[in-house]
Design goal:
- This protein is of the alpha/beta class and about 350 residues long.
- The protein has helices spanning about 20-35, 50-55, 110, 120-130, 140-150, 200-205, 220-235, 250-260, 275-280, 295, 310-325, 325-340, 345-359, and strands at about 5-10, 40-45, 60-65, 80-85, 100-105, 135, 155-160, 185-190, 210-215, 240-245, 260-265, 285-290, 300-305.
């Protein structure tokens, strides 16, 4: 082992900063930078290292990502003291048998790809578990579901919650979004996929005529073009459902600030950062009562137990009525809850895991 332990952060998803994995990579690394520890030395791994070198300077070492690194003969040969696989689904692995930390976000691929444990994706994940010397999970749910389907080696396991990506609100007072919405609206953001269940919001909206619905994210997916658009057409809500496409950080903050409520009927979440971001603005949050979301929302969210449209509308209108009677108190509680999810705390916990493997 070197004099100062070296930690390789398999963080190539930094190239996808608009995705959940990309956001996790970036904010965890930023938290590590802010920690300014001197007893370990981390290497950041990215396709384009220049912007990160500009932001973080020489606090990190840097390694350029190449697709060839996925193939066994071209794996990274440097023998680091700890290898941290920040995302459970990557194909990039160390050449050497070295201490290995695996972060598990979710095992949704069991439902979305194949329940057959001999399937390639499941076998690859099991191999990552088998080589691990420590496993971290972003929620109790992700730990429980991993144990349900896979064989877990006898290694230390940790639950380390993600931080809030909106710990600091940066929205300029005069910001105007690309698509401005007139009148009261609900807001949601995420991948346009079956898992996000956006069409249930459209069906609910048919029961709440005074509101519009703003949905942000990549609206060019098969789900967006078929299930979602067909639902909008069926209920004649073309003028009340606004699909913005991908949006900027400032546009996201604008919609969070000005929406009546944040709505998130997701079917499966390893953690679920958007509801926490909405709470940072003191907004009421309506989410699914499943997977990790009750861990995230705690007693500060309103929950849907199922997705019958009339029922969802009832929960929403009742929740909004309760919120309107206690707006200041509840908003302050939501903001305090959102701030309890800290990337500084998360980064320090990961650093402690590295130390446990190098001491």
């Amino acid at each position: 082992m070197s004099e100062i332990p070296t930690i390789f952060l398999e963080s190539h998803n930094l190239k996808n900063l608009k995705t959940g994995f990309g956001q996790f990579n970036y904010h965890l690394i930023k938290g590590m930078y802010n920690a300014q520890v001197s007893d370990i030395r981390c290497t950041l791994y990215a396709k384009d290292t220049a912007p990160f070198q500009k932001e973080f300077g020489d606090y990190f070492d840097y390694k350029k990502y190449y697709t060839l690194h996925r193939r066994s003969p071209f794996r990274i040969r440097k023998k680091y003291d700890v290898w941290h696989s920040l995302n459970q689904n990557v194909k990039i692995e160390p050449y050497h048998d070295i201490p290995y930390v695996l972060t598990v976000h979710d095992v949704n691929f069991i439902d979305e790809v194949s329940k057959d444990l001999n399937h390639e994706s499941n076998q690859r994940f099991q191999a990552k578990l088998d080589r691990s010397h420590a496993i971290t999970y972003i929620s109790k749910y992700s730990q429980e579901s991993t144990h349900k389907y896979f064989k877990i080696p006898d290694v230390p396991e940790y639950i380390i919650y993600n931080g809030n990506t909106l710990e600091t609100i940066t929205l300029p007072e005069n910001h105007v979004p690309n698509i401005k919405v007139e009148g009261p609206f609900f807001f949601s953001i995420g991948e346009f996929s079956e898992r996000k269940n956006f069409h249930s919001l459209v069906e609910m909206l048919a029961h709440i005529p005074e509101y519009k619905l703003v949905l942000a994210g990549n609206n060019g997916t098969d789900y967006a073009r078929t299930t979602l658009q067909e639902c909008i057409q069926k209920h004649g809500l073309q003028d009340r459902v606004i699909c913005t496409g991908k949006i900027s950080e400032f546009d996201k903050q604008y919609y969070l600030k000005h929406c009546t409520a944040f709505v998130f009927p997701s079917l499966r979440e390893g953690f679920g950062i958007p509801p926490i971001e909405a709470m940072r603005f003191g907004k009421p949050v309506f989410i699914s009562n499943n997977t990790s979301l009750p861990e995230v929302g705690g007693t500060h969210a309103f929950y849907w137990d199922h997705y019958d449209p009339a029922y969802m509308a009832y929960v929403l209108t009742k929740g909004l009525a309760n919120y309107s009677k206690n707006t200041n108190m509840l908003s302050e509680a939501y903001i305090a809850h959102s701030k309890s999810f800290s990337w500084a705390n998360a980064a320090q916990q990961y650093i402690d895991v590295y130390r446990s493997l190098t001491s």
